[in-house]
Amino acid sequence: MTGHSDSSSSEKKSNEEMNDVPVFSAENMQNNMKVIYYSRTFMSIIGGVIAGILGFTGFMGFVFYFLVMTITSIGLIAKAKFSVHLYVDSWNRIILDGFMGGLMSFVLFWTFAYDIVHIF
Amino acid sequence: MGLGLIIGVFGVLFLFHAAYSTIQYRGLLKIMDEEFSVPSMNVVLELLLGFVFCVSAALTVPGDFLSIHPDSEENRIVSLPSNLDFMIFNHRAKALPFDVDMKLH
């Protein structure tokens, strides 16, 4: 009885077309997604603390978040040594993944830092 | 990863120090009856330095990118023996004539 093996180079297909299907190593793809997620979350928190210390209110804070996310994306692309197709399967993953979840963390730490520095 | 972690800790420490000096600056402005409009210049510089440290820590601490193509150079070796589904513990080696005491006479 063959179990659901989780060996180091298990492969999965990613398209519905029957010919010319790209095959990727799923475990390495998961590892890359995890790295991107951790990096983005940490940078969202740090960006929130900086926005709170600098005293941004309203729209300026979201502009700052967008700037921090852009810098993080550029940093991740530089970490992939500019040949992104070797590590992720589409550009959206390295640019847009974790954007909304990072926004929640950013706003949380932004209000937290702003309250501590400017109000209390 | 150790160096990246230390750089990240230093970045966070710079951020905390900048927050503390901004709190003190606001207290000073309250004493002098002025409004807080712009943080002082050294706080901005310290925040920028802390941000650079944290960016470099965020890019190095979580780990490296691994190549996802199965035919790239570092994916060549398939470590199949580490898969529990293919390990056999009940095989014919118990029939091999290995005597336990093989002393030199």
The greatest inter-chain interface is formed by: A-B, 42 and 38 residues
- Globally, the shape of chain B reads elongated
The helix/strand class of chain A is mainly alpha
Tell me the fraction of residues in β-strands of chain A, as a range. Answer: 5-15%
Q: How do the SSEs of chain A run, as a string of H and E? A: EEHHHH
Protein name (chain A): ER membrane protein complex subunit 6
Membrane topology (chain A): Multi-pass membrane protein
Pfam family, one (chain A): EMC6
GO cellular component, one term (chain A): EMC complex
Q: What are the SSEs and their pairings?
A:
The complex is a heterodimer of chains A (120) and B (105).
Chain A lengths: L10 E3 L9 E3 H29 L4 H21 L11 H6 L2 H21 L1
Antiparallel strand pairs in A: 1-2
Helix pairs in contact in A: 1-2, 1-4
Chain B lengths: L1 H30 L9 H20 L45
Explain what the structure shows.
Chain B: InterPro entries: MMgT. Chain B: It comes from Hibiscus syriacus. The complex is a heterodimer of chains A (120) and B (105). With 120 residues, chain A is mainly alpha-helical. Chain A has one domain. In chain A, 64% of the residues lie in helices and 5% in strands. Chain A has a two-stranded antiparallel ribbon. Chain B has a domain at 1-61. Chain B contains 2 helices and no strands. Chain B has helices spanning 2-31, 41-60. Chain B is elongated, with a radius of gyration of 31 Å. Chain B starts with a helix and ends in a 45-residue tail after the last helix. The interface between A and B is large, with 42 and 38 residues.
